[in-house]
Amino acid sequence: MKGVLAVSIIVAGLATPLAATRVAADVFDTRPDLRFCMAAMLRGFGNGLEERACAKLYDLPSAYHFTCARGVVRGFRSDSDRAACASFFEQQASAAKAAHVRPQTP
């Protein structure tokens, strides 16, 4: 009887992480619009309407963060692209410094 109980506990313990992983994967399976928005955020949106819709629905950051970071790593096409990227991140840094900090709740 103790052996059966031990095996049951081990099986239940192994099944829980697998079930949790499956549930996490289902978020993108059940929400193709979220999957589209996340992929577009990383690769760049096809147009501004898609970017605005995804930002409104899911509060995603601008894809320009990733475009600018790619330029930093791979190089910029022009001096104006580099200046725009630097200006963008300077504005983001200023906004972060001025942002409200929510108090921690116990």
From TrEMBL:
Domain of life of the source: Bacteria
Cleaved signal peptide residues: 1-20
UniProtKB keywords: Signal
Stated name of the protein: Uncharacterized protein
Native species: Tepidamorphus gemmatus
